[in-house]
Specification:
The complex is a heterodimer of chains A (312) and B (248). By secondary structure, chain A is α/β, with parallel strands linked by helices. Chain A has 2 domains: 181 residues, D-Maltodextrin-Binding Protein, domain 2, CATH 3.40.190; 96 residues, Periplasmic binding protein-like II (D-Maltodextrin-Binding Protein, domain 2, 3-Layer(aba) Sandwich). In chain A, 46% of the residues lie in helices and 19% in strands. Chain A has a 5-stranded mixed β-sheet. In chain A, strands 8-7-9-6-10 form a 5-stranded mixed β-sheet, sandwiched between helices. Chain A is globular and about 60 Å long. Chain B has 248 residues and is mainly alpha-helical. Chain B has one domain: Orthogonal Bundle (MetI-like fold). The radius of gyration of chain B is 22 Å and the shape is globular. Chain B starts with a helix and ends in a 6-residue tail after the last helix. Classes of the chains: A alpha/beta (312), B mainly alpha (248). The interface between A and B is medium-sized, with 30 and 22 residues.
Chain lengths: 312, 248
């Protein structure tokens, strides 16, 4: 009995000890699991860019973007690499967060089975198409595509599914296609269980995708750290764009993906750190689509969404 | 009347505390939506029939899952509880399968049963099966040996004892198992409705979460809670009425 009790106390002790409790000056950054849009974060971390600036970061992984902004509003993380769609939904709900930098444009795609008979968008009518979650940038892209082609969303069986289940669902014929972020698009072709129907760049050229959001508290209390981190973000973004071979080799190890696939994945993502006028305008267009879909209640202005003063 | 009044004291206090915390902005709305915000979400859902469809969808999945689980778990539980051989044969398997979280079955539910009703029912079945089984086994084992021995002495056959002594005597435990099962079945709805379904209260909760509509999340939570209460209440009533020897 005594031994059993001791064992229980030990196990509890382990739980308390291993519980993530970041020291006070650590910057907690959220990102999406297996999403290569945040490759700049992975590169910055792998190249020791944070340490060399004297910044300690703790990277926290999430499954959907909404969880990142909720965690930020609750003070659990300071910054996050997240889709612009969840970011604007959060700002619309009055959460104290702002978009402080861009991360990427494009980088998603629609995957279908290799022997699929679907040749154009209208062929999806009557078929099942899944997306990561409602409110995601993929949801917005899909609606944008259907609007462009004058197809009613009701004519397609659109459902939501965890990204990790999508390949199995496609292979077993349970779904006819999915819209998803990289690396899942390219991986489907390189692993042979799917083929790319359309890259998101073909749906909407240079569409905004991920951004960096920061909590208002963090922005006000640690402006210098935020500036340093955004400088690192820009350096890492430049690194991916100018040292492609090295970036491919680092990322393929990190994401455990074959080098050729990794190179292909990166070629479908446009990495940008500073949002230009076009990015901002397209982002406002995304908000208007969100408004149509009932995901946001207000027409947000650029000043309500962006705070770009901390960018280098 | 007095009982009802006593029962609502805590819920009323919770709502008052909740209103105070949110209306004076001690807790910001995006962390905990105010009761009026939840009411607004609720009324918003009512306007579209969505809530009714979601409630019916979840109810039909939970009830189907529970019926299938009961249809298998009750006879199996009686056999395992009655026969030492059956117990020896199945105990290890049951104890290993039992702690596996229903969520872990999601990929297989999708591969085996596809998207929609069947896979959701399968997840709920997994959740409800074990409490019903374990309680049935326990109920059979706890039967007063005097009942069984008297029946033998009076010349009853094995099958007569099973149907006329063992089954009625273990009914109170079976009812407890069903009540626990319903609770766990409802707890599984979020997991069950993660597999690309398009309706249900679990789906409503996740959907609202993805659209950062915390009011909608609470509406879904409350309705699941109320359904759980009503189902448990009717089970207890039925038990009182039909299982007179249950001692409740």
């Amino acid at each position: 009995m005594f031994t059993a009790l001791c064992l229980l106390v030990l196990i509890m002790g382990y739980g308390v000890y291993s519980h993530d409790s970041a020291p006070k000056d650590t910057v907690r950054i959220g990102y999406l699991a297996n999403d290569q849009h945040s490759a700049a974060l992975a590169i910055a971390n792998a190249k020791g860019m944070f340490e060399s600036e004297g910044i300690t970061v703790e990277l926290q992984q999430f499954n959907v973007g909404a969880d990142i902004v909720i965690a930020m509003a609750a003070g659990q993380i300071d910054m996050g690499y997240v889709g612009t769609a969840p970011a604007t939904m959060a700002i619309d709900k009055g959460m104290p967060v702002k978009v402080v930098a861009a991360v990427n444009e494009e980088g998603s795609g629609i995957v279908i089975a290799p022997n699929s008979t679907i040749n154009n968008v209208t062929d999806f009518e009557g078929h099942t198409l899944v997306m990561p979650s409602r409110g995601s940038i993929q949801d917005i892209l899909l609606h944008y595509l259907l609007q462009q082609k004058n197809i009613s969303p009701q004519s397609i069986d659109i459902r939501e599914m965890q990204t990790s289940l999508m390949p199995e669902a496609l292979q077993s014929g349970r779904v006819d296609g999915y819209i998803v972020w990289e690396p899942y698009v390219t991986q489907a072709s390189s692993d042979g269980y799917g083929k790319t129907f359309m890259y998101s760049g073909e749906i909407w050229k240079n569409h905004p995708c991920c951004v960096i959001v920061a909590g208002n508290d963090f922005m006000q209390n640690h402006p210098d750290t935020l500036k340093k981190i955004l400088k690192i973000h820009q350096n890492a973004t430049d690194y991916i764009n100018s040292n492609r071979d090295d970036a491919v080799s680092i990322l393929s190890k990190q994401y455990k993906i074959d080098v050729n696939t990794e190179r292909e994945v990166l070629s479908h993502i446009k990495f940008v750190a500073v949002p230009d006028e076009d990015f901002i305008n397209k982002d406002l267009k995304i908000v208007s689509i969100q408004r149509q879909l009932g995901y946001v209640g207000h027409n947000l202005t650029r000043n309500e969404i962006f705070d770009l003063r901390y960018l280098p | 009347m007095r009982k009802t009044l006593t029962a609502i004291i805590i819920p009323v206090l919770i709502i008052i505390g909740w209103s105070l915390l949110t209306s004076f902005n001690i807790i910001p709305e995006y962390i905990l939506p105010s009761p009026s915000e939840v009411l607004n979400s609720f009324l918003g859902f009512l306007g579209t029939n969505e809530l009714l469809i979601d409630t019916l969808a979840t109810l039909s999945r939970v009830i189907t899952g529970l019926i299938i689980a009961a249809a298998i778990a009750i006879p199996l539980g009686i056999i395992i509880g009655w026969s030492k051989k059956a117990e020896g044969l199945s105990n290890l398997t049951i104890q290993v399968l039992r702690p596996i979280p229903p969520l872990a079955w999601i990929p297989f539910a999708m591969l085996w049963f596809g998207l929609g009703f069947e896979s959701a029912v399968f997840i709920i079945f997994i959740g409800t099966f074990f409490p019903v089984l374990i309680n049935t086994i326990d109920g059979v084992k706890r039967i007063n040996k005097v009942f069984v021995e008297s029946a033998y002495t009076l010349g009853a056959s094995q099958s007569q004892i099973l149907t006329n002594v063992v089954m009625p005597a273990s009914l109170p435990s079976i009812f407890t198992g069903l009540r626990v099962g319903i609770g766990i079945g409802l707890m599984c709805t979020v997991a069950a409705e993660m597999i690309a379904v398009k309706s249900g209260l679990g789906y409503l909760i996740m959907e609202s979460m993805n659209l950062i509509d915390t009011g909608g999340v609470i509406v879904g939570m409350l309705i699941i809670g109320i359904i759980g209460f009503l189902m448990d209440y009717s089970f207890r009533k039925a038990e009182k009425k039909y299982v007179l020897w249950s001692g409740n």
